[in-house]
Design brief:
about 750 residues; mainly alpha; two-stranded antiparallel sheet; 26 helices; 6 strands
């Protein structure tokens, strides 16, 4: 008996492979079998021997002694009339339909491919009195071979190692083979009732021949490709497309996909509804690489770029994605990642729209809409975790206070109390003391109420800003090569040693970001913030030094020291104007783009990728505006200008310090305020100024600084004009060109 009710053809023989019999009322046997196979554990076990029932097909009997042709008594067909001959061939053909060969219908197996082939063997073919017998038998023999080959495939792919999709596929094949055996059994019954002839067999098995040979081709293709899981489903669908528009074959392959995809859709449901991978046999399209876990994603110095969770933890395996899910693969991949991030935050999450997903070839919207709902839920829930529970915008605002000097009073206070420390070489500075001074400056400033102020710390890096920038633009491979080969040091990296740079050049900030905000504010983002901070810091430091140089020499105003001092003050004012205008320009660009980013995040984000994109765009725009990422030679020109200003302020400070020392010594000895003493003081300062001017080569030094400043400004202007031709950077470049023209003019 069979669980299905096959349609009847004339003569009462069922043909379960026509479309009405096959797809109308599928039996529960296949479901139970598949359910038994799908209930596997996560460990790969060896199949027990009792599962390998190959004795039911030709593979077991081919070497049996009782089945050897030498032990079988030969029967000469020529001694019988045509009806008896046909009856004898019919009986052996019925055996062949179940995979067993006999005296005249033999079976051979290819040693390499393990494929079976039946052939009609007669020692004396001339004994056949009706030669149409051989022709009919040879038409039916491919059905016998196909059945055996499919049985061999089922026995092999039912093992644990082939996975749950293969198990479900084999269960579906068993269901179809069982229906085929029902046909053979009913043919046997007709034979017992002496109503069966070769012509009737051929008439009844034609639908089965088409189906079994198709299954034989399909299983052979899968066997050669050695595919499992989603790849197996892809091959089934590709096979159906290659066969063209045969309606019966199309329905059969859709039936195979529908049954075989059940365990795959169960994996899909666990992923998009819970963020869990239930894939012990590596059949699903998403693979957990275990390369990044959340406790390693707190920003630290030793965190490398490749350890970013979003890109490293999960991998999309394209060849394990069925063709009918290809368009939805990115959303499926992202949905599970969203849920997994939420779960890593110790938040229980399960999609309230969870529904069972099944394959529907004629109604793709049925599972498409379910996946879309799961994606929208996961996206909204993760945004809520970031924006509400972890207060992302407050974190970004806090970072802006410290790295972009949004509320810079802490910075001014820090420079006041740490100036002596920062003027030393970096290797002589005690980092704990510097951190204590930074903490003191923060707690006595406008950012003292910031709840995240404890996340800020400072450190000293081993290269100046130029070396740091070039290191950031290198690929990870080139970085590792440079670390292994110290001979590959370029000119800019000659200062990548804390013994050669001062504290104000080596100082940078750190900011500790914990999970899950480290997905957005990752190491790459922190390094960009650090570049901007160091750039700001150096500009502010040079501005401060130029201002202090003026204050130190303020006492000289009461003396007539000549026109050279006027040239010095004019050059100092030009330098101050350039630096202040450049700082104002950077602040304006940063503030404008930060407001735009903030508005986009609050009003127009729908996924966490949108936040990442807006945040990265903001940082990239700030880097371009500050000349940190347009190109390195452009920043080199700006760096030369700032270095010239720094050297000039140091020169003026040393010169004024020498004059101030002489003046203090003289006034301490001659404290009288009468007119004669004042004249003597003027004469003394004129003589002292002339002497130090000669010692410092004051006049030529001022001229050299002026020429260097003007030439570097001109070179920067020329390069900015070429950069302005690029549409992406034209606005910032044109603003800087106007700024340079003001200072040159």
């Amino acid at each position: 008996p069979t669980s299905a009710s096959p349609a009847q053809v004339p003569g009462g023989i069922p043909t379960p492979f026509n479309t009405d019999g096959l797809f109308s009322t599928p039996g529960s046997g296949a479901q139970n079998t598949a359910g038994g196979i799908l209930n596997t554990t996560s460990q790969l076990h060896q199949s027990p021997e009792w599962m390998l029932r190959n004795y039911q097909s030709y593979g077991f009997l081919q070497n049996a002694e009782r089945h050897s042709s030498e032990n079988v008594k030969k029967i000469d067909l020529s001694n019988y009339d045509v009806k008896i001959q046909e009856l004898m061939i019919v009986e052996q053909l019925l055996n062949a339909l179940m995979g067993f060969d006999d005296e005249y219908i033999r079976c051979v197996q290819d040693i390499k491919t393990k494929r079976v082939q039946f052939y009609f063997s007669l020692t004396n073919r001339e004994g056949l009195k009706n030669h149409s017998i051989q022709e009919i038998v040879e038409r039916i023999l491919p059905l016998c071979a196909g059945y055996v080959n499919v049985c061999e495939f089922v026995e092999e792919y039912s093992k644990y190692a082939y996975g749950m999709v293969a198990h479900a596929f084999c269960a579906t094949l068993k269901y179809l083979l069982k229906e085929y055996l029902v046909v053979v059994a009913q043919l046997e019954q007709e034979h017992r009732n002496q109503k069966l002839s070769l012509q009737r067999i051929w008439f009844y098995v034609q639908p089965s021949l088409k189906t079994i040979t198709t299954l034989d081709k399909l299983t052979t293709t899968i066997k050669h490709a050695k595919v499992t899981g989603g790849s197996l489903l892809r091959h089934i669908q590709q096979f159906a497309l290659e066969l063209g528009g045969d309606k019966q074959i199309k329905q059969m392959t859709e039936f195979l996909i529908e049954r075989s995809s059940v365990p795959y859709f169960e994996m899909l449901e666990a992923w998009i509804y819970k963020g869990i991978i239930q894939d012990p046999y590596h059949e699903f399209m998403v693979r957990d690489t275990q390369q990044a876990v959340k406790h390693r994603l707190v920003y630290k110095e030793d965190t490398s770029f490749t350890e970013v969770y979003w890109n490293a933890r999960y991998e999309l395996i394209e060849n394990q994605c069925p063709r009918f899910l290809e368009q939805l693969a990115p959303k499926i991949f992202t949905t599970g990642k969203y849920l997994n991030v939420i779960r890593e935050c110790q938040v229980d999450v399960e999609c309230p729209f969870a529904e069972k997903i099944v394959y529907a070839s004629n109604n793709e919207r049925e599972y498409t809409e379910k996946i879309e709902k799961a994606y929208n839920f996961a996206s909204e829930r993760l945004l809520e975790v970031f924006m509400v529970e972890h207060k992302l915008m407050d974190r970004l605002r806090s970072i802006k206070h410290y790295f972009l000097l949004d509320e810079a009073d802490y910075f001014v206070h820090f420079l006041d109390i740490a100036e002596e420390e920062l003027s030393q070489y970096a290797h002589l500075i005690e980092a704990p003391r510097l951190n204590s001074l930074l903490e003191m400056a923060i707690r006595t400033s406008a950012v003292a109420d910031d709840p995240y102020k404890d996340a800020v710390s400072c450190t000293l890096v081993g290269s100046n800003l130029m070396g740091y920038l070039m290191d950031l633009h290198r690929t990870p491979k080139s970085r590792s090569e440079q670390q292994n080969d110290s001979s590959m040091m370029d000119d800019d990296q000659g200062e990548s040693n804390t013994s050669n740079i001062q504290g104000f050049e080596a100082l940078t900030l750190n900011y500790e970001i914990s999970w899950p905000l480290s997905l957005i504010i990752n190491k790459r983002s922190i390094e960009k913030y650090q570049l901007l901070f160091r750039h700001f810091f150096f500009c502010k430091y040079v501005e401060r030094e130029l201002s202090n140089a003026f204050l130190r020499g303020k006492f000289i105003r009461q003396f007539s020291v000549g026109r050279d001092y006027s040239k010095m003050n004019i050059l100092r004012h030009r330098m101050l104007d350039f630096i202040r205008n450049f700082e104002y320009y950077m602040v304006e660009v940063i503030e404008k783009n930060y407001r735009a980013m903030e508005q986009k995040i609050r009003n127009s984000v729908s996924t966490i990728e949108d936040i990442m994109t807006y945040h990265n765009d903001f940082l990239d725009t700030c880097m371009r505006a500050s000349l940190l990422s347009i190109n390195v030679p452009l920043f080199q020109n700006l760096s030369k200008i700032l270095r010239t200003c720094s050297d000039f302020s140091r020169f003026i400070s040393e010169y004024m310090q020498a004059l101030s020392t002489d003046y203090s010594q003289y006034t301490s000895l001659n404290a009288s305020t009468n007119l004669n003493m004042q004249r003597e003081r003027l004469a003394f300062m004129a003589e002292s100024s002339s002497r130090h001017a000669n010692n410092f080569q004051f006049v030529s030094a001022i001229d050299n600084f002026s020429r260097a400043f003007d030439s570097n400004l001109a070179a920067l202007s020329v390069k900015l004009k070429s950069v302005a031709q690029n549409q992406n950077t034209a606005d910032q470049a044109n603003q800087l060109i106007q700024l340079i023209k003001i200072n040159v003019g």
